[in-house]
Protein backbone atom coordinates (compact mmCIF):
# COMPACT_ATOMS: atom_id res chain seq x y z
CA UNK A 1 0.00 0.00 0.00
CA UNK A 2 1.27 3.46 -0.88
CA UNK A 3 1.96 5.91 1.89
CA UNK A 4 -0.88 8.35 2.36
CA UNK A 5 -0.05 11.87 1.15
CA UNK A 6 0.86 14.54 3.67
CA UNK A 7 2.46 12.27 6.25
CA UNK A 8 6.09 12.67 5.26
CA UNK A 9 5.92 16.46 5.52
CA UNK A 10 5.23 16.22 9.26
CA UNK A 11 8.74 15.14 10.06
CA UNK A 12 10.45 15.92 6.76
CA UNK A 13 13.93 17.20 7.63
CA UNK A 14 14.04 19.28 4.45
CA UNK A 15 10.88 21.15 5.44
CA UNK A 16 12.31 21.85 8.88
CA UNK A 17 15.60 23.01 7.43
CA UNK A 18 13.77 25.25 4.97
CA UNK A 19 11.76 26.87 7.78
CA UNK A 20 14.93 27.46 9.76
CA UNK A 21 16.63 28.99 6.72
CA UNK A 22 13.69 31.32 6.09
CA UNK A 23 13.68 32.46 9.73
CA UNK A 24 17.39 33.32 9.61
CA UNK A 25 16.94 35.18 6.33
CA UNK A 26 14.02 37.13 7.76
CA UNK A 27 16.07 38.09 10.83
CA UNK A 28 18.91 39.31 8.58
CA UNK A 29 16.55 41.39 6.42
CA UNK A 30 14.80 42.98 9.41
CA UNK A 31 18.16 43.85 10.96
CA UNK A 32 19.21 45.46 7.67
CA UNK A 33 15.98 47.47 7.54
CA UNK A 34 16.41 48.73 11.10
CA UNK A 35 20.11 49.56 10.80
CA UNK A 36 20.37 50.84 7.20
CA UNK A 37 19.02 54.11 5.83
CA UNK A 38 20.26 53.91 2.22
CA UNK A 39 18.22 54.03 -0.97
CA UNK A 40 17.95 50.24 -1.19
CA UNK A 41 15.89 49.89 2.00
CA UNK A 42 12.62 49.65 0.01
CA UNK A 43 13.95 46.65 -1.87
CA UNK A 44 14.97 45.07 1.43
CA UNK A 45 11.46 45.59 2.81
CA UNK A 46 9.98 43.95 -0.29
CA UNK A 47 12.34 40.99 0.09
CA UNK A 48 11.40 40.68 3.78
CA UNK A 49 7.73 40.60 2.80
CA UNK A 50 8.35 37.83 0.28
CA UNK A 51 10.34 35.81 2.83
CA UNK A 52 7.58 36.23 5.42
CA UNK A 53 5.01 35.00 2.89
CA UNK A 54 7.18 31.96 2.05
CA UNK A 55 7.47 31.14 5.74
CA UNK A 56 3.71 31.50 6.20
CA UNK A 57 2.98 29.16 3.29
CA UNK A 58 5.43 26.59 4.60
CA UNK A 59 3.87 26.73 8.07
CA UNK A 60 0.36 26.37 6.58
CA UNK A 61 1.48 23.35 4.57
CA UNK A 62 2.96 21.68 7.67
CA UNK A 63 -0.12 22.58 9.71
CA UNK A 64 -2.42 20.94 7.16
CA UNK A 65 -0.20 17.87 7.16
CA UNK A 66 -0.44 17.61 10.93
CA UNK A 67 -4.20 17.91 10.82
CA UNK A 68 -4.33 15.11 8.24
CA UNK A 69 -2.24 12.78 10.42
CA UNK A 70 -4.30 13.51 13.51
CA UNK A 71 -7.59 13.00 11.71
CA UNK A 72 -6.65 9.30 11.56
CA UNK A 73 -8.23 7.35 14.40
CA UNK A 74 -5.17 6.29 16.40
CA UNK A 75 -5.07 4.74 19.90
CA UNK A 76 -5.39 7.28 22.72
CA UNK A 77 -2.11 6.16 24.28
CA UNK A 78 -0.33 7.35 21.13
CA UNK A 79 -1.69 10.87 21.51
CA UNK A 80 0.06 13.50 23.63
CA UNK A 81 -2.16 14.47 26.60
CA UNK A 82 -1.26 18.12 25.98
CA UNK A 83 -1.58 18.45 22.21
CA UNK A 84 -4.06 15.58 21.64
CA UNK A 85 -1.96 14.79 18.57
CA UNK A 86 0.02 11.72 17.53
CA UNK A 87 3.34 11.80 19.41
CA UNK A 88 6.53 11.90 17.36
CA UNK A 89 9.04 12.11 20.23
CA UNK A 90 7.41 10.58 23.34
CA UNK A 91 9.24 11.26 26.62
CA UNK A 92 8.58 10.33 30.24
CA UNK A 93 8.52 12.87 33.09
CA UNK A 94 9.39 12.07 36.72
CA UNK A 95 5.80 11.02 37.54
CA UNK A 96 5.91 8.31 34.87
CA UNK A 97 3.52 10.05 32.46
CA UNK A 98 4.36 10.28 28.75
CA UNK A 99 4.14 13.43 26.59
CA UNK A 100 5.39 14.59 23.21
CA UNK A 101 8.72 16.35 23.81
CA UNK A 102 8.01 19.78 22.23
CA UNK A 103 4.72 20.16 24.14
CA UNK A 104 5.99 19.16 27.58
CA UNK A 105 9.04 21.39 27.01
CA UNK A 106 6.72 24.30 26.30
CA UNK A 107 4.81 23.50 29.52
CA UNK A 108 8.03 23.47 31.56
CA UNK A 109 9.42 26.61 29.97
CA UNK A 110 6.25 28.45 30.96
CA UNK A 111 7.39 27.95 34.57
CA UNK A 112 5.20 24.98 35.46
CA UNK A 113 6.70 22.48 37.92
CA UNK A 114 3.83 19.97 37.99
CA UNK A 115 2.79 17.02 35.86
CA UNK A 116 -0.12 18.22 33.64
CA UNK A 117 -2.04 14.95 34.11
CA UNK A 118 -1.48 14.09 37.78
CA UNK A 119 -0.80 17.63 39.10
CA UNK A 120 2.04 16.15 41.18
CA UNK A 121 5.13 18.34 41.70
CA UNK A 122 7.93 17.11 39.44
CA UNK A 123 11.00 16.00 41.40
CA UNK A 124 13.12 16.98 38.38
CA UNK A 125 12.61 18.15 34.79
CA UNK A 126 14.66 15.47 33.06
CA UNK A 127 12.82 14.00 30.07
CA UNK A 128 13.51 10.31 29.36
CA UNK A 129 12.76 9.00 25.84
CA UNK A 130 9.93 6.45 25.84
CA UNK A 131 11.38 4.02 23.31
CA UNK A 132 8.61 1.46 23.81
CA UNK A 133 5.81 3.87 22.90
CA UNK A 134 7.90 5.25 20.05
CA UNK A 135 8.33 1.77 18.56
CA UNK A 136 4.62 1.02 19.02
CA UNK A 137 3.70 4.26 17.20
CA UNK A 138 6.05 3.41 14.32
CA UNK A 139 4.60 -0.09 14.06
CA UNK A 140 1.03 1.26 14.10
CA UNK A 141 1.87 3.80 11.38
CA UNK A 142 3.40 1.04 9.24
CA UNK A 143 0.28 -1.12 9.64
CA UNK A 144 -1.88 1.86 8.62
CA UNK A 145 0.24 2.40 5.53
CA UNK A 146 1.48 5.79 6.64
CA UNK A 147 5.08 6.97 6.89
CA UNK A 148 6.48 8.51 10.08
CA UNK A 149 10.21 9.06 9.89
CA UNK A 150 12.42 7.18 12.38
CA UNK A 151 14.52 10.30 12.90
CA UNK A 152 12.46 12.89 14.72
CA UNK A 153 13.40 16.37 13.54
CA UNK A 154 11.62 19.47 14.73
CA UNK A 155 12.30 23.06 15.67
CA UNK A 156 11.00 24.20 19.04
CA UNK A 157 9.77 27.69 19.94
CA UNK A 158 13.35 28.90 20.44
CA UNK A 159 14.75 27.51 17.18
CA UNK A 160 16.53 24.47 18.69
CA UNK A 161 17.03 21.59 16.26
CA UNK A 162 18.21 18.02 16.66
CA UNK A 163 21.49 19.18 15.10
CA UNK A 164 21.80 21.62 18.03
CA UNK A 165 21.20 18.75 20.46
CA UNK A 166 23.88 16.67 18.81
CA UNK A 167 26.31 19.59 18.97
CA UNK A 168 25.47 20.03 22.66
CA UNK A 169 26.30 16.38 23.37
CA UNK A 170 29.54 16.66 21.41
CA UNK A 171 30.60 19.66 23.51
CA UNK A 172 29.91 17.75 26.72
CA UNK A 173 32.00 14.83 25.48
CA UNK A 174 34.90 17.20 24.85
CA UNK A 175 34.86 18.20 28.54
CA UNK A 176 36.46 14.79 29.25
CA UNK A 177 39.06 15.13 26.50
CA UNK A 178 42.38 17.00 26.14
CA UNK A 179 42.94 20.42 27.69
CA UNK A 180 42.70 22.18 24.31
CA UNK A 181 39.32 20.56 23.60
CA UNK A 182 38.13 21.30 27.14
CA UNK A 183 39.02 24.97 26.68
CA UNK A 184 37.24 25.13 23.33
CA UNK A 185 34.09 23.33 24.58
CA UNK A 186 33.92 25.26 27.88
CA UNK A 187 34.14 28.58 26.05
CA UNK A 188 31.40 27.64 23.59
CA UNK A 189 29.07 26.26 26.29
CA UNK A 190 29.51 29.51 28.21
CA UNK A 191 28.54 31.58 25.15
CA UNK A 192 25.64 29.33 24.10
CA UNK A 193 24.08 29.28 27.58
CA UNK A 194 24.42 33.04 27.78
CA UNK A 195 22.77 33.75 24.43
CA UNK A 196 20.26 30.90 24.12
CA UNK A 197 17.79 29.96 26.90
CA UNK A 198 17.12 26.77 24.93
CA UNK A 199 20.66 25.56 25.67
CA UNK A 200 20.15 26.24 29.37
CA UNK A 201 17.06 24.06 29.22
CA UNK A 202 19.02 21.23 27.54
CA UNK A 203 21.01 20.70 30.74
CA UNK A 204 17.77 19.82 32.50
CA UNK A 205 17.02 16.96 30.13
CA UNK A 206 19.82 14.63 31.24
CA UNK A 207 21.14 13.60 34.64
CA UNK A 208 24.66 13.37 33.19
CA UNK A 209 24.86 16.81 31.55
CA UNK A 210 25.96 18.88 34.56
CA UNK A 211 28.45 16.26 35.87
CA UNK A 212 29.95 16.13 32.36
CA UNK A 213 30.26 19.94 32.36
CA UNK A 214 32.08 19.78 35.69
CA UNK A 215 34.54 17.05 34.62
CA UNK A 216 37.59 19.37 34.25
CA UNK A 217 37.05 20.84 37.73
CA UNK A 218 36.37 17.52 39.44
CA UNK A 219 39.40 15.90 37.76
CA UNK A 220 41.65 18.69 39.00
CA UNK A 221 41.09 17.69 42.62
CA UNK A 222 42.97 14.44 42.10
CA UNK A 223 45.13 14.71 38.98
CA UNK A 224 46.12 18.29 38.16
CA UNK A 225 45.33 21.91 38.87
CA UNK A 226 42.39 23.31 36.95
CA UNK A 227 43.19 25.69 34.10
CA UNK A 228 42.03 29.23 35.06
CA UNK A 229 40.21 29.83 31.76
CA UNK A 230 38.38 26.50 31.93
CA UNK A 231 37.40 27.14 35.55
CA UNK A 232 36.07 30.60 34.71
CA UNK A 233 34.07 29.33 31.72
CA UNK A 234 32.58 26.36 33.60
CA UNK A 235 31.63 28.46 36.65
CA UNK A 236 30.09 31.10 34.38
CA UNK A 237 28.14 28.39 32.55
CA UNK A 238 26.78 27.22 35.93
CA UNK A 239 25.71 30.83 36.55
CA UNK A 240 23.96 30.92 33.17
CA UNK A 241 22.22 27.62 33.91
CA UNK A 242 21.03 28.79 37.33
CA UNK A 243 19.19 31.70 35.72
CA UNK A 244 16.78 29.17 34.15
CA UNK A 245 14.09 28.63 36.84
CA UNK A 246 13.56 24.97 36.02
CA UNK A 247 17.30 24.33 36.50
CA UNK A 248 17.75 25.83 39.97
CA UNK A 249 16.87 22.72 41.95
CA UNK A 250 18.69 20.35 39.61
CA UNK A 251 21.88 22.46 39.57
CA UNK A 252 22.04 22.93 43.35
CA UNK A 253 21.31 19.28 44.09
CA UNK A 254 23.97 17.95 41.70
CA UNK A 255 26.52 16.71 44.29
CA UNK A 256 29.64 18.47 42.98
CA UNK A 257 28.13 21.88 42.20
CA UNK A 258 28.13 23.60 45.61
CA UNK A 259 31.62 22.33 46.65
CA UNK A 260 33.08 23.44 43.30
CA UNK A 261 31.42 26.86 43.59
CA UNK A 262 32.95 27.16 47.06
CA UNK A 263 36.37 26.24 45.63
CA UNK A 264 35.88 28.90 42.96
CA UNK A 265 35.11 31.52 45.64
CA UNK A 266 38.56 30.88 47.11
CA UNK A 267 40.62 30.65 43.93
CA UNK A 268 40.79 31.56 40.27
CA UNK A 269 40.35 34.90 38.53
CA UNK A 270 38.30 37.59 40.20
CA UNK A 271 35.69 37.09 37.45
CA UNK A 272 35.50 33.39 38.41
CA UNK A 273 35.06 34.24 42.09
CA UNK A 274 32.47 36.92 41.37
CA UNK A 275 30.48 34.62 39.07
CA UNK A 276 30.60 31.83 41.66
CA UNK A 277 29.03 34.25 44.17
CA UNK A 278 26.45 35.30 41.57
CA UNK A 279 25.60 31.64 40.91
CA UNK A 280 25.03 31.02 44.63
CA UNK A 281 22.84 34.13 44.76
CA UNK A 282 20.73 32.95 41.81
CA UNK A 283 20.43 29.39 43.11
CA UNK A 284 19.39 30.66 46.55
CA UNK A 285 16.13 31.97 45.12
CA UNK A 286 14.69 28.60 46.25
CA UNK A 287 14.36 28.16 50.04
CA UNK A 288 15.41 24.52 49.78
CA UNK A 289 18.60 25.67 48.05
CA UNK A 290 19.23 28.30 50.73
CA UNK A 291 19.34 25.54 53.35
CA UNK A 292 21.47 23.28 51.13
CA UNK A 293 24.02 26.01 50.36
CA UNK A 294 24.24 27.16 53.97
CA UNK A 295 24.63 23.62 55.29
CA UNK A 296 27.45 23.00 52.79
CA UNK A 297 29.43 25.83 54.40
CA UNK A 298 29.32 28.37 51.58
CA UNK A 299 28.84 31.39 53.87
CA UNK A 300 32.44 31.31 55.14
CA UNK A 301 34.12 31.69 51.71
CA UNK A 302 31.52 34.33 50.82
CA UNK A 303 32.38 36.32 53.95
CA UNK A 304 36.10 35.90 53.25
CA UNK A 305 35.65 37.22 49.70
CA UNK A 306 33.60 40.13 51.04
CA UNK A 307 36.43 40.96 53.45
CA UNK A 308 38.87 41.21 50.52
CA UNK A 309 36.67 44.01 49.24
CA UNK A 310 37.33 43.66 45.50
CA UNK A 311 34.90 46.07 43.77
CA UNK A 312 34.04 43.58 41.01
CA UNK A 313 32.89 40.92 43.48
CA UNK A 314 31.36 42.98 46.29
CA UNK A 315 27.82 43.33 44.94
CA UNK A 316 27.44 39.66 43.96
CA UNK A 317 28.85 38.50 47.29
CA UNK A 318 26.58 40.87 49.24
CA UNK A 319 23.53 39.72 47.29
CA UNK A 320 24.36 36.05 47.92
CA UNK A 321 24.85 36.57 51.67
CA UNK A 322 21.60 38.57 51.91
CA UNK A 323 19.59 35.89 50.11
CA UNK A 324 21.05 33.07 52.18
CA UNK A 325 20.43 34.88 55.47
CA UNK A 326 16.70 35.11 54.84
CA UNK A 327 16.32 31.73 56.56
CA UNK A 328 17.06 31.62 60.29
CA UNK A 329 19.66 28.83 60.37
CA UNK A 330 21.87 30.71 57.92
CA UNK A 331 21.81 33.83 60.12
CA UNK A 332 23.53 31.83 62.87
CA UNK A 333 26.06 30.45 60.37
CA UNK A 334 26.87 33.92 59.03
CA UNK A 335 27.41 35.32 62.55
CA UNK A 336 29.59 32.35 63.46
CA UNK A 337 31.64 32.86 60.27
CA UNK A 338 32.48 36.47 61.17
CA UNK A 339 30.01 38.30 58.95
CA UNK A 340 29.15 41.00 61.52
CA UNK A 341 32.72 42.30 61.86
CA UNK A 342 33.43 42.17 58.13
CA UNK A 343 30.17 43.88 57.18
CA UNK A 344 30.63 46.64 59.78
CA UNK A 345 34.19 47.28 58.58
CA UNK A 346 32.97 47.68 55.00
CA UNK A 347 30.18 50.02 56.11
CA UNK A 348 32.69 52.14 58.07
CA UNK A 349 34.73 52.34 54.86
CA UNK A 350 31.49 53.33 53.06
CA UNK A 351 31.53 50.33 50.74
CA UNK A 352 28.21 48.97 49.46
CA UNK A 353 26.52 50.66 52.43
CA UNK A 354 22.83 50.19 51.56
CA UNK A 355 23.15 46.50 50.68
CA UNK A 356 25.34 45.60 53.67
CA UNK A 357 23.13 47.49 56.11
CA UNK A 358 20.19 45.39 54.94
CA UNK A 359 22.16 42.23 55.84
CA UNK A 360 23.20 43.69 59.19
CA UNK A 361 19.57 44.52 59.98
CA UNK A 362 18.63 40.88 59.35
CA UNK A 363 21.49 39.57 61.48
CA UNK A 364 20.67 41.93 64.36
CA UNK A 365 17.89 39.59 65.48
CA UNK A 366 20.65 37.18 66.57
CA UNK A 367 21.86 37.74 70.15
CA UNK A 368 25.55 37.15 69.39
CA UNK A 369 25.37 39.61 66.47
CA UNK A 370 23.96 42.33 68.75
CA UNK A 371 26.71 41.73 71.29
CA UNK A 372 29.37 42.00 68.56
CA UNK A 373 27.84 45.22 67.24
CA UNK A 374 28.11 46.78 70.70
CA UNK A 375 31.70 45.63 71.15
CA UNK A 376 32.73 46.85 67.68
CA UNK A 377 31.45 50.41 68.18
CA UNK A 378 28.51 50.15 65.78
CA UNK A 379 26.46 52.87 67.52
CA UNK A 380 28.67 55.78 66.43
CA UNK A 381 28.86 54.43 62.88
CA UNK A 382 25.08 54.02 62.59
CA UNK A 383 24.38 57.47 64.03
CA UNK A 384 26.78 59.09 61.55
CA UNK A 385 25.09 57.25 58.66
CA UNK A 386 21.67 58.53 59.72
CA UNK A 387 23.04 62.07 59.72
CA UNK A 388 24.83 61.91 56.37
CA UNK A 389 22.64 59.61 54.26
CA UNK A 390 19.82 60.83 52.02
CA UNK A 391 18.45 57.30 51.56
CA UNK A 392 15.30 56.62 53.59
CA UNK A 393 15.93 52.86 53.55
CA UNK A 394 19.46 53.32 54.91
CA UNK A 395 18.19 55.49 57.76
CA UNK A 396 15.46 52.93 58.47
CA UNK A 397 17.92 50.04 58.71
CA UNK A 398 20.30 52.08 60.89
CA UNK A 399 17.62 52.99 63.43
CA UNK A 400 16.26 49.43 63.44
CA UNK A 401 19.70 48.09 64.35
CA UNK A 402 20.16 50.83 66.96
CA UNK A 403 16.79 49.94 68.48
CA UNK A 404 17.88 46.31 68.88
CA UNK A 405 21.18 47.37 70.45
CA UNK A 406 19.30 49.72 72.79
CA UNK A 407 17.02 46.87 73.92
CA UNK A 408 19.88 44.46 74.59
CA UNK A 409 22.68 46.66 75.92
CA UNK A 410 21.92 49.37 78.46
CA UNK A 411 25.51 50.53 78.47
CA UNK A 412 24.85 52.13 75.07
CA UNK A 413 22.02 54.34 76.34
CA UNK A 414 24.46 56.98 77.58
CA UNK A 415 26.07 57.23 74.14
CA UNK A 416 22.67 57.55 72.47
CA UNK A 417 21.50 60.19 74.99
CA UNK A 418 24.62 62.28 74.48
CA UNK A 419 24.13 62.13 70.72
CA UNK A 420 20.51 63.12 71.06
CA UNK A 421 21.31 66.06 73.35
CA UNK A 422 24.01 67.30 70.97
CA UNK A 423 22.38 66.81 67.56
CA UNK A 424 18.81 65.55 68.00
CA UNK A 425 19.42 62.99 65.23
CA UNK A 426 16.94 60.44 66.55
CA UNK A 427 14.23 63.08 67.19
CA UNK A 428 14.52 64.30 63.60
CA UNK A 429 14.11 60.75 62.30
CA UNK A 430 11.09 60.23 64.57
CA UNK A 431 9.47 63.17 62.75
CA UNK A 432 10.67 62.74 59.17
CA UNK A 433 11.53 59.08 58.63
CA UNK A 434 9.57 56.21 57.09
CA UNK A 435 6.76 54.78 59.21
CA UNK A 436 9.04 51.98 60.45
CA UNK A 437 11.89 54.41 61.12
CA UNK A 438 9.55 56.73 63.06
CA UNK A 439 8.35 53.80 65.15
CA UNK A 440 11.85 52.61 66.02
CA UNK A 441 13.15 56.14 66.69
CA UNK A 442 10.17 56.89 68.96
CA UNK A 443 10.82 53.63 70.80
CA UNK A 444 14.42 54.64 71.49
CA UNK A 445 13.38 58.12 72.63
CA UNK A 446 10.83 56.66 75.04
CA UNK A 447 13.48 54.46 76.62
CA UNK A 448 15.94 57.33 76.85
CA UNK A 449 13.32 59.57 78.50
CA UNK A 450 12.41 56.77 80.86
CA UNK A 451 16.01 56.40 82.01
CA UNK A 452 16.25 60.18 82.53
CA UNK A 453 13.07 60.15 84.64
CA UNK A 454 14.29 57.19 86.66
CA UNK A 455 17.59 59.00 87.30
CA UNK A 456 15.82 62.15 88.48
CA UNK A 457 13.47 60.12 90.70
CA UNK A 458 16.38 58.31 92.29
TrEMBL record:
GO terms for molecular function: ubiquitin protein ligase activity. PROSITE patterns: U_BOX. It is an enzyme of class 2 (transferase). Keywords: Repeat, Transferase, Ubl conjugation pathway. Pathway: Protein modification; protein ubiquitination. Pfam families: ARM_PUB (PF25598), U-box (PF04564). Residues 73-147 form the U-box domain. GO terms for biological process: protein ubiquitination. InterPro entries: ARM-like, ARM-type_fold, ARM_PUB, Armadillo, RING-Ubox_PUB, Ubox_domain, Znf_RING/FYVE/PHD. CDD domains: RING-Ubox_PUB. It comes from the Eukaryota. This is RING-type E3 ubiquitin transferase. It comes from Dillenia turbinata. The lineage of its organism: Eukaryota, Viridiplantae, Streptophyta, Embryophyta, Tracheophyta.
